[in-house]
Amino acid sequence: MDTKLSYFNFTYPRELVAEKPSKQRDECRMLVVHRDSGEFEHRIFKDFIEFVNPGDVVLANNTKVFPALLYGEKEKTGARITVFLQRELNRDMRLWDVVVDPARKIRIGNKLYFGPNESLVAEVVDNTTSRGRTVRFLFDGTHEEFVKHIRSLGHTPLPDEIQALRNIENIDAERYQTLFAKVEGAVAAPVAGLHFSRELMKRLEIKDVVWQELTLHCGIGNFKEIEVEDLSKHRMDAEEMHISQSVCDTIMKAKADGKKLCVVGTTTMRALESAVTIPGKISAYDGWTNRFIFPPYHFSLPDMMVTNFHHPRSSHFIMASTFGGPELIMKAYELAIREKYKFSTYGDAMLIV
Question: Does 287 lie in the same domain as 190?
């Protein structure tokens, strides 16, 4: 199999990027890809329940999106700036890794002001990348009070491509979050999980489908372009992940009993594969992962995968192609484009079985 980036290139009309979520989470369209026969089905997402049986395991990512976008002003000039919080580096010193825009005007020593009456101040203490900075927030109070204040000022960190189409709205705080989000720490949503409604999850429970969760905090690296033609040379940004032994045991028992494992989303798949010790075995994992999955790669545990329609040359598209088979998934995308499926964060779903 060719492991060149250019193999995973395609074009699609930009109007296929979903500007807003579907009215109901589980009523988006779903293209079902059958790996054994190479056939496709056009469904809606609530039909997902027809593809799982009692005892099968559905594994999802329960990370919770942090309101990581701050809008503020630069000292003296009053120039408008955007700060995208990435990661807390030091809790006591309130040091954070951030991405700033416009970056060329933000230098070490600059102070940045946020909120009504400039209620929050940050000082730039280091340059990390062309747009990356380390900032120290100047705030009197406990860590809990500081986090509460950040939340009150922060906005939902929608991808730039959606912000280019419209302003962030109140509904985004709800819909750019899965219904099972529990562990705060992500700055990007695990978008395949956005399709699961309360009604569908209840129907899965009634059908005795086993729901399990892990945590992988999706970072800004999810939006980065791959810049090397040889995929073996690409390095993913590390992301924090946790999978408990009880979840591992549940999965291993189900597989031993001949049941299927359905993985919800590329972030969940990356976490699962990071926990594999030997083929067909997983153990608890508590740490960081920069796993990048590209062909050729053998998946020994998952039988099915829910994913969205992703951008060309993206790590998400490459992973979905690896699981479904590059030629088959490319054909599926060609069909999706012809049938005007919606792409990206708020787009339609693909179920690979």
Answer: yes
Q: Are residues 277 and 200 in the same domain?
A: yes
Find the CATH number of the domain harbouring 236.
Answer: 3.40.1780.10
Do 133 and 245 fall into the same domain?
no
Q: In terms of Cα–Cα distance, which of 318, 313, 306 is closest to 349?
A: 306
Across 47-68, average pLDDT: 97
Backbone angles phi, psi at 206, to 5 degrees: -65, -35
Residue 227 lies in a domain: yes
Most distant CA pair in the chain, distance: 66
- Please check whether residues 204 and 310 belong to one and the same domain: yes
The parent domain of residue 94 ranges over 69-154
CA count, 13 A, side-chain hemisphere, 107: 1
- Among residues 264, 261, 192, the alpha carbon closest in space to that of 25 is found at 192
The 3-state DSSP class for residue 126 equals: strand
Cα four-point dihedral sign 140, 144, 147, 153: negative
Tens digit of each residue's pLDDT (9 = 90 or more) over 133-162:
999 999 888 989 998 998 899 999 888 888
The amino acid at residue 317 is F
CA 103 to chain centre: 25
Chain position carrying tokens 């099915």: 304
pTM above 0.85, yes or no: yes
6 contacts 179 by C-beta, under 8 angstroms = no
Distance CA 40, CA 335 (A): 9
Place of tokens 């992301």: 239
- 302 neighbors 319 (Cβ within 8 angstroms): no
In a shared domain, residues 10 and 146:
no
The answer to whether residue 243 sits within a structural domain is yes
Tell me the one-letter amino acid at 54: P
Q: Do 218 and 297 fall within a single domain?
A: yes
pLDDT digit string, tens, across residues 217-266: 998 777 778 999 999 999 998 899 999 999 999 999 999 999 999 999 99
Which residues lie closer than 8 Å to 50 by C-beta, 6 or more apart? Answer: none
Q: Does one domain contain both 137 and 209? A: no
Closest among 59, 52, 321 to 190, alpha carbons compared: 59
